[in-house]
Design a protein that fits this description.
By secondary structure, this protein is an alpha/beta fold. Among the domains are: about 70 residues, Arc Repressor Mutant, subunit A (Orthogonal Bundle); about 120 residues, Rossmann fold, CATH 3.40.50. The protein is built from eleven helices and 14 strands. The chain is globular and about 80 Å long. The termini are far apart.
């Protein structure tokens, strides 16, 4: 009998993966391109991709595409890791970089990564976790929106004796395995750069100060300021920004630089201040944290602290694999990825020093 067309497509894609033409983490061509390549309908392509996803060969992410997990073990045993992403912005490329790093590392140990997108809603996050528990996954990677509020959801995983690891954010009062970046030292790098540029009136702008990662960045900022002999008061922490008041303080030279807890708030601040007639960096220097993909594409390139998101993902999957295999002796091992300073046009020497 003639082989179904979707099976032909499926086997051809599997052969490309096994031959190394498609590597773990690679994105498959768009459905339209596959239709042209195999001269079949969209229904046939979707059927082939659905079966590959069900078998753990690829991961399909809504509005983003299909990504290679890697070849499966010969015995076809179920080696599955769930990645729960409680994301504010599903189109943030940094999430995709973390997923790619985790997929590449997981594939090396014959694990398939199942990505489940959640949001700020705890009930949705819990439903995603339960869904993956029902699939008998071997472990969880979790990127939480608020790791403190999600504590009960972690306990649901613990009750099922499944190992899990938090990515980027963690709860200091609920120890867990963790993969993130060196927030404290990154903040010191950023603050020292502003001080090197002769800025002494530097404020810290927060995005979500309830996150321990932002608190660590603030602590690094405070440390660098005090080491330079500069005082830090409660007024130097901006959690709800009055942009008219901030613009006025800049014009009065009461503020000459801002260290922002992430690039999103830095970009927002640049937009708000330039909209009020201020010039960056002539009137105020601004530095961010993350090296978000849009940071270098602004009319004013944003100086920032760069995280290696793919490395964070790889570290997360590697550590979780060690936990699953019983190779760790601590219940709260943390791996911190290094950071680097990236200088662009949003910072300059203080002209009033």
């Amino acid at each position: 009998m003639t082989e179904p067309k979707y099976e032909t497509v499926k086997q051809a894609l599997q052969q490309q993966i096994q031959a190394g033409k498609l590597q773990p983490g690679d994105k498959l061509p768009h459905e339209e391109d596959l239709m042209k390549q195999f001269k079949v309908s969209g229904i046939t392509i979707r059927k082939a991709l659905t079966e590959l996803a069900d078998e753990g060969v690829i991961t399909r992410i809504k509005r983003k595409g299909s990504f290679v997990n890697g070849t499966q073990p010969a015995d076809h045993s179920s080696h599955l890791i769930a990645f729960i992403l409680s994301a504010e912005d599903n189109f943030d490329v940094s999430y995709m970089k973390i997923i790619k790093g985790a997929q590449q590392a997981a594939a090396e140990f014959n694990y398939s990564l199942i990505v489940e997108w959640s949001n700020e809603n705890l009930a949705v996050e819990q439903a995603s976790i339960q869904k993956m528990l029902d699939r008998k996954v071997d472990g969880f990677l979790i990127y939480p929106f608020d790791p403190v509020r999600s504590k009960d959801n972690y306990q649901l995983i613990e009750q099922n004796s499944i190992p899990y690891l938090l990515v980027d954010r963690y709860n200091v009062d609920h120890p867990s395995y963790f993969s993130g970046c060196d927030n404290y030292d990154g903040a010191i790098l950023a603050t020292r750069e502003l001080i090197r540029l002769k800025h002494t009136k530097i404020k810290f702008a927060s995005y979500h100060f309830f996150l321990h990662s932002e608190q660590e960045r603030f602590a690094g900022y405070c440390s660098a300021m005090r080491q330079a002999g500069l005082t830090v008061t409660d007024e130097d922490l901006l959690t709800r920004i009055d942009y008219d008041g901030l613009a006025d303080s800049i014009l009065k030279r009461e503020v000459t630089a801002l260290f922002c807890s992430n690039d999103k708030i830095a970009i927002e601040i640049i937009g708000q201040l330039t909209g009020r007639g201020l010039k960056i960096p002539q009137d105020v220097s601004i530095i961010g944290f993350d090296d978000w993909d849009h940071s270098s594409n602004l009319s004013i390139g944003l100086s920032t602290v760069r995280q290696n998101f793919e490395e964070i993902g790889r570290n997360a999957a590697n550590l979780l694999n060690q936990v699953i295999r019983g190779k760790t002796h601590s219940s709260n091992t943390k791996i911190l990825s290094g950071v680097t300073l990236v200088i662009r046009e949003s910072t300059s020497e203080n002209p009033y020093a």
